[in-house]
Design a protein that fits this description.
With about 325 residues, this protein is of the alpha/beta class. The protein is about 35% helix and about 15% strand. Strands 1-4-3-2-5-6 form a six-stranded mixed sheet, with helices on both faces. A two-stranded antiparallel sheet has the order 7-8. Bound molecules: zinc ion.
Length: about 325
């Protein structure tokens, strides 16, 4: 498969990209920026990939993955002298054409953990990312048949000590550890070469070096690989995963989360607000501040209090155990 990427930072390159992107039914998406989606966050680049193959198959050897890295700053109005002269004739309307694709309900956007991307687009640009397949959700769905032991093992060591989990299985059996992109690829049998690190505090510097453009493009390649693997594996109903992704990516729709809020920023799957028991009783969680079904909280007889939902209890417990170790 042929893979290419190009930086779009002027009128000519973005106009050409828009023409290609507008004809696609599926866009692979990934954003980069400083504290993306959080309070004080800023978007730097918007990566969009399209796949074309002569025979119409997604994993065809003849196919081509073309990645456009849109330098968002290049199309915004210059601010406080931080941008150089080439941005003086900024054209926000060109970005609008791209944003319309992101908000379109007929173009499927495929990404990995799009919660912060969606937060940044919504709170920073008023764009509601719509019609999405979040592969982090698809990855969780692909583990549905995993037994409880394997599910608990995913938490052990990486999130909480094994003895804590094994001694309190009832408290942790609903807690699902999320995979990062590498972990999800590994679970699908795809080995990746560790990415060369970049200093994320430099995403707002211009000109954007080729190293940063390649870094952004590489994520799109990995997302494409994960998508084809999950789809070909056949374990996940992609329609269901799309339906679940819609709610998942809007997790921060009410406001940007604080970078320091441990209950908003953790590697656990947020609980479904309805729970799995037929109960209309709800409770407000003291951690995530969400109103959830009472079935998503430890019971009174567990003796650990009922203020936190199962996920926030795990987050709180991790914080306490870390404090103790200091
Ligand atoms: Zn909670």
């Amino acid at each position: 498969m042929k893979i290419s990427h190009q930086l779009c930072d002027n009128h000519e390159s973005i106009t050409s990209a828009i023409a290609k992107l507008s004809n696609a039914n599926i866009l692979f998406i990934d954003c980069e920026g400083k504290d993306l989606g959080s309070q004080g966050g800023t978007l730097s680049t918007l990566g969009l990939g399209i796949y074309n193959s002569p025979d119409g198959y997604y994993n065809s050897r003849e196919g081509e993955l073309t990645i456009y890295i849109v330098d968002v700053l290049a199309f915004q109005r210059p601010c406080s002298g931080s941008l150089d002269n080439k941005h003086a004739n900024a054209q926000p309307d060109l970005l609008r054409s791209i944003f319309d694709l992101l908000a379109s309900s007929v173009v499927l956007k495929i990404g990995f953990d799009l919660r912060m991307d969606a937060s940044e687009l919504l709170h920073g640009y008023g764009v509601r990312l719509t019609c999405v397949l979040d592969l982090q959700v698809a990855d969780v769905v692909s583990r549905t048949e995993e037994d409880e032991v394997r599910s608990l093992q995913r938490l052990m060591g990486r999130f909480l000590p094994a003895q804590e989990i094994l001694g309190n299985r009832e408290l942790y059996k609903k807690v699902v550890k999320l995979n990062g992109l590498d972990g999800a690829l590994m679970d699908q049998g795809i080995k990746t070469i560790p990415k060369k690190r970049v200093d994320h505090s430099r995403w707002m510097l211009r000109p954007l070096s080729e190293r940063y453009v390649s870094y952004a493009a590489e994520d799109i390649c990995l997302i494409y690989s994960l998508y084809t693997a999950i789809r070909d594996n056949g374990k996940v109903s992609l329609m269901d995963a799309v339906a679940r992704s819609e709610g998942y990516i809007q997790y921060h729709a009410s406001c940007r989360p604080s970078k320091d809020d441990i209950y908003q920023r953790h590697g656990l799957m947020p609980l479904d607000e309805h729970g799995d028991l037929d109960t209309k009783r709800t409770r407000l969680c003291a951690g995530c501040k969400r109103r959830l079904s009472s079935s998503q909280f430890p019971s009174l007889k567990s003796g650990v209090g009922i203020a936190y939902c199962f996920v926030c209890y795990a987050v709180n417990r991790r914080g306490k155990l870390r404090e103790k170790r200091k």
